[in-house]
Amino acid sequence: MFKNKYKKNYLYFEEVKTPFVVILIYIIIALILVFLFVFPGPVKDWLNTPYTRFIATLIVIVDLIFFWSYSQLIIKINDTYLKLSFGIFRKKILLKDVIDVEVKDFDKKNYSGYGFALGKDKSVGFITGTPHGILIKMKPKNVFVSTENPDELKEILESKI
Q1: pLDDT tens column, 18-76
Q2: Which of 127, 161, 130 is closest to 144 using CA atoms?
Q3: In the chain, where the domains are located
Q4: Which of 3, 80, 89, 123 has the most crowded Cβ, counting Cβ within 10 A?
Q5: In the prediction, which pLDDT does 101 show?
Q6: For residues 104 and 147, what is the distance between their CA atoms, to the nearest angstrom?
Q7: DSSP result, 12-68
Q8: What pTM was computed for the model?
Q9: More confident residue, 154 or 57
């Protein structure tokens, strides 16, 4: 069922890719910033100080970290917890804390953008751009997870709560 030996330790394992357009935006931002280093042109005076070079380098590094982090969402479930990770952004949910699970469509009005997002309804979202997901109801905050297999994920979670 699973491709490698580490995935077989989970009841459920899914890698949800972020849309190419979102990844392309991070790459373009990094390329623009690197281009400004190589061909400073109108910002030459601004980039001449060590302080601003440090800030610009830091921005490129942060952009690349976000690019790597948001390239895919990994969903793992074992007997005791659900683990969601977007690179450096991770959340571990104990299954005993889950109250209910429901399949929902992605609501663009509630979550702005992709990646790790805070919803207007005070929920936390792990958003990849898939049109469907699950809403995990728990205290203190609900969690919305984009998935390509919402019914399967819901079934597994409901069997464990």
Answers
A1: 777 777 887 888 788 777 766 666 666 666 677 777 877 788 788 777 777 777 888 99
A2: 127
A3: 19-69, 95-160
A4: 123
A5: 92
A6: 10
A7: EEEEEEPPHHHHHHHHHHHHHHHHHHHS-GGGHHHHTSHHHHHHHHHHHHHHHHHHH
A8: 0.73
A9: 154
Placement of tokens 């109108």 in the chain: 42
Element (H, E) at 96: none
Closest to 135 measured CA to CA, from 122, 18, 73? 122
Contacts of 146 (CB under 8 A, 6+ apart): 16, 73, 106, 125, 126, 127, 128, 129, 130, 132, 133
Find out whether 89 and 107 touch, Cβ atoms under 8 Å. Answer: no
Q: In terms of Cα–Cα distance, which of 81, 77, 73 is closest to 145?
A: 73
| pLDDT at residue 64, rounded to an integer | 78
